[in-house]
Amino acid sequence: MEAHETAESYDPTRYERPSVTVDVVIFTLLNQELHVLLVQRRRWPYDGYWAIPGGFINMDESLESAALRELEEETGVRDVYLEQLYTFGGVGRDPRTRVISVAYIALVRSDAQPIRVSDESTDVRWFAVRELPTELAFDHDQILAYAISRLRSKLEYTTLAFQLLPEVFSILELKHIYEQILGEKLDKGNFYRKIKEAGLLEETALMREGRGRPTRLWRFKPDRASDKQFVFRWREDRTTL
Amino acid sequence: MEAHETAESYDPTRYERPSVTVDVVIFTLLNQELHVLLVQRRRWPYDGYWAIPGGFINMDESLESAALRELEEETGVRDVYLEQLYTFGGVGRDPRTRVISVAYIALVRSDAQPIRVSDESTDVRWFAVRELPTELAFDHDQILAYAISRLRSKLEYTTLAFQLLPEVFSILELKHIYEQILGEKLDKGNFYRKIKEAGLLEETALMREGRGRPTRLWRFKPDRASDKQFVFRWREDRTTL
DNA sequence: CTGTTTAGTGTAAAATTCACACTAATTGTA
DNA sequence: TACAATTAGTGTGAATTTTACACTAAACAG
To answer: Is B60 on the interface with A (CB under 8 A)?
Structure first.
């Protein structure tokens, strides 16, 4: 989201330098499916369009702080995992003035706090990535597409996926996340072996019962929680950057 | 680099919003070794310190155009390969005002145009990455360190290295580039096989004579020149992002 | 015509990936 | 109470890839 003037109050000459915003593409897993949170704008430009939450940076806050603040202000979502995605700075991105957007990817566990509508939007909603609105505000289609492709590719060589899981989880639940994000079936046996060998999981005493054989629950090893060196490759090819 | 005032002319209240600059970490191969181009500042702050070339973005140019323009203005270097690295936005980066820097990596062939000193600096010089100045201006040490680590990691799964080579080259020259950037010896036989299998090279009729058996010269296949999907893995581990 | 230098190929052991069959522990139901 | 259904988890061997290193090739210098 960018500045909040209407078409009438907008005065381009007042801006001498590009403005900077942060935009946050936030993902979660809902009903076993990857979702992204969008807000519906209630102001010109792109009034009524769905957009990625975001806004201007204050002078005294870092980019990360700004991203977290804007995310909470606009959607109520807190305590997310945050990672810089890319900076979009094309000249015609925003019809009001020159705006440079530093885009972030955020991940949040599915059992997290509920979302809230701010007074800048008419609605806030989780969208399944397979059923996104056809047209988004600004160049947010591009930002979102890039976020999804990067999420997929980083999944293969980082521990990103763990950010979407609750405290304890079964190995097959983890496998399901990988399948959802990669959009591809994985072999059960190979998954078990790989994840065990990686040594990232810590066995808990907990089991979960259901239909069929009960499943053991695991926890992400605390000391490895921020380990990004980890390689977990499922396919040969990976996308750029 | 950032604004060009002296300590005296600097007035913080005049800035209401963060300023945006682009900084360009430009690499080349000189004497078979990886080098980076730095400029020596001639103004407060960090007067006399070496810094990554860069500067403010104009209202009507994209980030990439700004990066190319600043690079040429400050160093005379043109026709580079450019790729966005990361955006640095910590609050205390610049003592003058809040500055957000979009950092780029640039690669240029070693046989490229000569460098030139602008009137904003006292010197411009290629530094071997193994012999960098001890202290750089601003947070440029961090930016540079990150650029080097990213260059290494992207080398393994992109065709980045080809940007450092002249039009035609031998396979062992290409291998040498990989070794320089990765800082590690590679097996000759394995390198030959991998690069041939990848199908990225086109044989030319040219040979280069010297001491010992003459070597065949190759060209990067034009249609694959921008192919980034290519996987060329030498080691298992790779760094984040 | 032999030694030295640089270019390039061959190959077999080791490690990893991949596909798929198998065993295990529980609940629902005949 | 057995046994089908369901979900969890293990085992295994063939196929592929990686790795290390030995070998052949083509030039020049003495």
So the answer is: yes
Chain position carrying tokens 């750029």: A240
Nearest to A87 among B59, B90, B102 (CB): B102
Average pLDDT, integer, range A204-226: 85
In chain B, whose CA is at the least distance from the CA of A229?
A: B239
**CA within 13 Å, CB half, B165:** 23
Taking the CA of residue B189 and the C1' sugar atom of nucleotide D24, their distance in angstroms comes to: 13
Chain A nearest CA to B27, separation (Å): 18
**Which window residues (209-228, chain A) lie with Cβ within 7 Å of strand C?**
209, 211-214
As a whole number of angstroms, the distance between CA B224 and CA B158 comes to: 11
For the record, the structure tokens of A201 come out as 């999981």
d(CA B157, CA A241): 9
ipTM of the prediction:
0.85
**Domain A157-224 architecture:** Orthogonal Bundle (1.10)
Residue A179: strand, helix, or coil: helix
Residue B152 pLDDT class (50, 70, 90 cuts): confident
Across the interface, do B157 and A19 touch by the CB < 8 Å criterion?
no
DSSP B59: T
* Residue type for position B45: P
> How many angstroms separate the CA atoms of B241 and B236, rounded?
15
Instruction: List A100's β-bridge partners, or say none.
Output: A20
Phi, psi of B36 (to 5 degrees): -130, 145
Given an 8 Å threshold on Cβ–Cβ distance, is A89 in contact with B238?
no
CA distance B128 to A236: 34
Contact A238 B228 (CB under 8 A): no
Residues in a beta bridge with B218: B169, B203
Ranges of CATH 3.90.79.10 domains, chain B? 12-154
Residues A73-121 pLDDT 10s: 999 999 999 999 999 999 989 999 999 999 999 999 876 677 888 888 8
| Cα–Cα dist B4/A119, whole Å | 41
Domain B12-154: which CATH number of 3.100.10.20, 3.90.79.10, 1.20.1530.20, 2.30.110.10 = 3.90.79.10
Instruction: Decide if pLDDT at B1 tops 70.
Output: no
Within chain A, all domains assigned CATH 1.10.10.10 are found at 157-224
B93 inside 8 A of chain A by CB: no
CA–CA dist B166, B109 (Å, integer)? 6
Q: Count CB atoms within 10 A of the CB of residue B201.
A: 17
> Does residue B202 contact residue B216 with C-beta atoms inside 8 Å?
no
Cis preceding linkage at B45, omega within 30 = yes
Tell me the pLDDT tens digit for each residue of A179-195.
Answer: 998 888 999 999 999 99
